[in-house]
Amino acid sequence: MEGSIRAGVQVAVIDQLFEASWRAVYPELKRRARHRAKGNMEHAQEWLSATAIKALLFFRRSPERIRDPQGFLFLVLDHVFFDSCRRTLREGRFFDHSIDLEQDHQAILAAPCVSVLEQTELFERLTQVHRVVAKLPLTQQRLFEMKFVEDLPYPEIAAVLGITLPLVRKRVQMLRAALR
Predict the structure, then answer these.
(1) Residue partners of 154: CB distance under 8 A and separation at least 6
(2) What per-residue confidence (pLDDT) applies to 130?
(3) How far apart are CA 29 and CA 32, in angstroms?
(4) CB atoms inside a 10 Å sphere around CB 121
(5) Phi then psi for 91, rounded to 5 degrees?
(6) Nearest Cα to Cα of residue 79 among 130, 128, 118, 39
(7) Per-domain residue ranges for the chain?
(8) How much of the chain is helix, strand and coil, in % rounded to 5?
(9) Global model pTM greater than 0.90
(10) CB 114 within 8 Å of CB 92
């Protein structure tokens, strides 16, 4: 009983620290999110909401690892922004093996929401994925193309490969693990 009370007090203290830090930097966080979103308040609010949730969860999970709570909130906002850009690139771009990644990376990463530094980071990640996919067996490369490039539904992939739906799901799960 005493341990649960102590844990409850600790959570309350951590929540107060989070709230005080959030209130102190919220105007600047909002400005930065709006700047990153090029004035699109919908994106800015989405990023701020995700930042609040992720930061609060981290505050609660590992409070001892946070040295500068206010600075940490900016770091989380940056990570949320990068994740959003990556998701946008994943959803809106297809692999084209005819493109020379070393020569034409600006055309691949020409996203309106990223700076030169962010483009470089995204290019490096894309290059890593390309290298990993190139090393996969041809059957896994084909599965990668069908699932992540052509965005085919599982039943259609199963029909093309002539295997069961659960097996397709398992192979995609294994492919994701290999890409991580």
Answers:
(1) 165, 168, 169, 172
(2) 82
(3) 5
(4) 16
(5) -75, -30
(6) 118
(7) 1-94+106-125, 136-180
(8) 80, 0, 20
(9) no
(10) no
Residue 6 tokens read as 């102590």
For tokens 């906002």, the residue is: 77
Residue 157: Cβ within 10 Å count? 21
Identity at 3, one-letter amino acid code: G
Residue 170 to residues 145, 161, 163, Cα–Cα distance (Å): 16, 14, 11
Compute the Cα dihedral for 67, 59, 84, 33 and give only its sign.
Answer: negative
| b/e per residue 26-46 (b: at least 16 CB within 10 A) | eeebbebbbebbeeeeebbee
φ, ψ for residue 159 (rounded to 5)? -65, -45
Rounded to an integer, what distance in angstroms lies between the CA atom of residue 110 and that of residue 10?
A: 46
Residues in CB range of 95: below 8 A, 6 or more apart: 130, 133, 145, 148, 149
Q: 140-160 pLDDT, tens per residue?
A: 888 888 887 788 889 999 998
Predicted local distance difference test score (pLDDT) of residue 169: 92
**Helix 116-135 and helix 165-179, axial crossing angle in degrees, nearest 10:** 130
Helix intervals (H) in the chain: 2-36, 41-61, 69-92, 105-108, 116-135, 138-144, 154-161, 165-179
| Structure tokens, 167 | 């097996």
